[in-house]
Design a protein that fits this description.
This protein is mainly alpha-helical and about 210 residues long. About 70% of the residues lie in helices and about 0% in strands. InterPro entries: PAP2/HPO (IPR000326), PAP2/HPO_sf (IPR036938).
C-alpha cells in the first residue's frame, strides 16, 4: 500500500513540476512538434484527428460513470453487494481522476499552440481517456483479472490516440498530454488506495457473483 501512495505522490509532484516548467514558455520538444505539425489540422490529417478526438475524449468517462452506477444499482438489488461496492468505488476513482484538468487548467493558465477556447495544461481529452482506462483496469483487476493485460494495452492505445489527435489538431502541446497521464495515474493510485481497491484482494468478491 505504501508503494502505491508513494508512486501516486511522486507522479502528482512530477505533474505539478512539469506544469510549472512549461507554462511560461514551450519546451524544446513542444516547439519542435508544433513546427512539424503546423497546419496539418486544416487538411485530411486534421479531419481524421477530429473524428478520433470526438470519440476518445470527455464523453468516455461520462458513459462509463453512468454505466457503472447503473450496474451497481442492479447488482445491489440482486443482493450482490460486493460487486456493487466495487463498481461504486471504481466510479469514485473515475471521478477523482477526471478532476486534474478541471482544477489545474485555470491554475497554470497555459496558452494553446493556436487560438482555441480554454487553457492547455493538462489536456482534458487525454485526462478523460486515461481516467476511463484507469477505471477499466481497476474493474478488471477485481472482477476479471484475466483481462487486465488486455485492458492495460487498450487503455494505453486509446490514450495515445487521444493525445495524437489533439497534437495533430494543434490545440495542445506535447507536454499537455504527458502531464495529463502523470496526473491521472498519480491521482488514480492515491484514490484507489484510499477506497480500498489497491492492493487488490479479489477473494473478497464471492466467486461467480461479479459476472452474473
Amino acid at each position: 500500500m505504501i508503494g502505491y501512495v508513494l508512486a501516486g505522490v511522486l507522479l502528482i509532484a512530477a505533474f505539478l513540476l512539469l506544469g510549472l516548467l512549461v507554462t511560461p514558455a514551450p519546451s524544446p520538444p513542444d516547439a519542435v512538434l508544433r513546427t512539424t505539425l503546423a497546419g496539418d489540422w486544416r487538411g485530411v490529417p486534421g479531419d481524421v484527428a477530429a473524428v478520433v478526438s470526438a470519440v476518445f475524449g470527455p464523453v468516455l468517462p461520462v458513459l462509463l460513470g453512468v454505466a457503472l452506477l447503473g450496474w451497481a444499482a442492479v447488482r445491489w438489488r440482486r443482493g450482490d453487494r460486493a460487486t456493487a461496492g466495487i463498481a461504486l468505488r471504481v466510479t469514485v476513482v473515475l471521478g477523482l481522476c477526471r478532476l486534474p484538468s478541471l482544477v489545474f487548467k485555470p491554475v497554470f493558465d497555459r496558452a494553446r499552440p493556436r487560438a482555441y477556447a480554454d487553457y492547455a495544461y493538462p489536456s482534458g481529452h487525454v485526462v478523460s481517456v486515461a481516467s476511463t482506462g484507469f477505471a477499466v483496469v481497476l474493474l478488471c483487476l477485481w472482477l476479471a483479472p484475466w483481462l487486465v493485460r488486455a485492458a492495460v494495452a487498450v487503455s494505453v492505445a486509446a490514450t495515445a490516440l487521444s493525445a495524437a489527435s489533439r497534437l495533430v489538431l494543434g490545440v495542445h502541446w506535447l507536454t499537455d498530454t504527458i502531464g495529463a497521464v502523470l496526473a491521472v495515474t498519480g491521482v488514480g493510485l492515491l484514490a484507489a488506495t484510499a477506497v480500498g481497491l489497491l492492493p487488490a484482494v479479489r477473494d473478497k468478491v464471492p466467486a461467480g457473483r461479479g459476472t452474473a
